[in-house]
Design brief:
mainly alpha; about 180 residues; elongated; 9 helices
Length: about 180
């Protein structure tokens, strides 16, 4: 059976209970109270049962407490997921997007997210979802733009003929002023 890791000797059970009363972090309070039980002579099994954790978790708390003190028992904020593309890869991606695709090499006439995802996979060996790539491109300042569809046989003169024009008295020269009442 392994020997228990001793707690640091600059605190006592009473010190930890006092810190627990003044703490605003619920999980830190629970951890401090279970460690105070160890200082007061309870077994580690009892302290773990009191905190409703297993002995391994209590051991981890002891290690964190010994290394960092009571502040080490506060849950740290998650750093979040790491970026899939490095700064250099992102710079190359910007260059590729700005230059546009070469149809005979890339096989497309304009970049779509699915095309860029497969290009990233080929070039960098990084697997990325279209949604994630779209979010990254938006962070980099790009917006999804699409041209307004236009029929190939559209006649500009015919459009002018059928355009609805309001009678001159109903047109306002200044949109901020109210319409005149007759």
């Amino acid at each position: 059976m392994a020997r228990a890791i001793p707690l640091r000797d600059d605190y006592s059970g009473e010190d930890l209970r006092r810190l627990a009363r003044s703490s605003g972090h619920g999980r830190q309070v629970r951890r401090l109270l279970s460690l105070s039980m160890i200082y007061d002579g309870s077994s580690r099994r009892e302290a773990a049962a009191h905190a409703e954790v297993d002995l391994q978790t209590l051991r981890d708390w002891v290690l964190r407490f010994n290394a960092e003190g009571p502040e080490g028992l506060i849950d740290a904020k998650s750093t979040g997921p790491h970026r899939r593309l490095t700064v250099e890869q992102r710079a190359l991606l910007v260059t590729v997007i700005d230059d546009g695709p070469t149809p005979y090499i890339d096989g497309v006439v304009r970049w779509r997210l699915s095309d860029l995802v497969s290009w990233i996979q080929r070039e960098f060996g990084v697997s990325m979802d279209e949604t994630t790539l779209g979010r990254n491109l938006r962070e980099m300042g790009y917006r999804k733009l699409s041209a307004r569809p236009r029929h190939h046989a559209q006649d500009a003169e015919a459009m002018e003929t059928f355009k609805k024009n309001s009678p001159p008295e109903w047109r306002r020269s200044d949109p901020a002023s109210p319409p005149e009442q007759p």
